[in-house]
Amino acid sequence: MADTTNQKRASEKTASNYDHGVYKHLKLTIADYLKWMKSVGYVRKTRQGYQAQLNRFACFIKNTTISWQQLFTLNSLECYKKSSGQSRVPAINGLSRYLFSQGKIPQPLTNRSAPIVLPKLYEDYLSYQQTHRQATTRLISSIKRVLVDFNQYLQVHKIDLGSLKIEQVDAFLAEFLAPFAAASSRLYRGHLRRFLKYLYHERNYIKRDLAPFVVGRREYAKAKPPNFLRPQQIRKLFAGLTVDSTSDIRTYALVQLAYTMGLRPKEISQIRLDDISFSTQQLTVTERKGTNPVELPMPEHTLKAIAAYVIEARAQSEHRRVFLSLMPPFGPMSSNGVGRYITNAMRKAGLSSTAYWLRHSYAQNLLEAGSSIFEIKEMLGHDKIESTKLYLHVHIKLMRKVLFDETF
Predict the structure, then answer these.
(1) Is the pTM above the cut of 0.70?
(2) Cβ contacts of 202-210, under 8 Å, gap ≥ 24
């Protein structure tokens, strides 16, 4: 009996010493991580919040018998969440990514659930989007969201995809799109429309092309002429722009690109440093909605605005995208971010408009300068001439003269 007790005590002492070693190693690692955060520009408030969470995590590890190899696994993370009552653990995830980048653990933590594997036909379509349409990871995720629910709907209602009918597609969309706003509904409806087009044209899997019948209520209405800014509104917008901060300098460059070159927010976000030729004053736009790359001349003041941003306000980064976030780790701006900053600048100037109004104004400036509809189509990167014809629904100068008493 005494031998058993002694063995138990020895085992507990060994485990305690082992755990203490893991705990000490973790504390040193946390200290290194916090120093790294400071060196790359994380603000003090963020570092303090991370330190508090990591200290709680270290205390939890101190009272366990977990090994270093088991430390950064989903199992240990779930145990910690249950013990601490926390659902979000950004500090621990960040520490795992740091250790992974240092080669000290085999893989970082992730809170994402295991990816859903769709039937081969669906997965083939996602691969097609990536290889033939250069779809981004975010776009693939958005498409997959629709396809997952569509596949599930067909299974629940025992519908064969090969004999699909438009009534069944409409029934699915009515159910799936119910909680979404109009803009999201148009996006997801478009994803499904392109999938059906693929099934008919590329795979010959369905007997009839159902894509043209997948339309929303808005598509039955007469197309509206695009919104634009009048000359005094443009002057008001640029008068309200400042260059007092890194954010202001970046916004000024974004607005210049949108107005003087008619670029979409996504196209602006995709511009790389290598796309700009300062010597010839040209911009190569490769990421276009209609996949029509083009070289565009850059106005001098637009080129200077970008140069000022790159020299004075752009963070040092290994990323080649021109426009980066303002906060570390300084990743590329998203298209939504570009649109939001431009729109905010317009709102500050008292203009109830969006980033696309600048693009429309650019197109109408080309029209008034005598450019043909085909030239405007190429400059705007439209896939179809019908899209460009929207700009011909009204005679802009005449409308301005009659409605706004403007002279030129």
Answers:
(1) no
(2) 202/128, 203/121, 203/124, 205/121, 205/161, 205/162, 206/161, 206/162, 206/163, 206/164, 207/162, 207/163, 210/164, 210/165, 210/166, 210/169
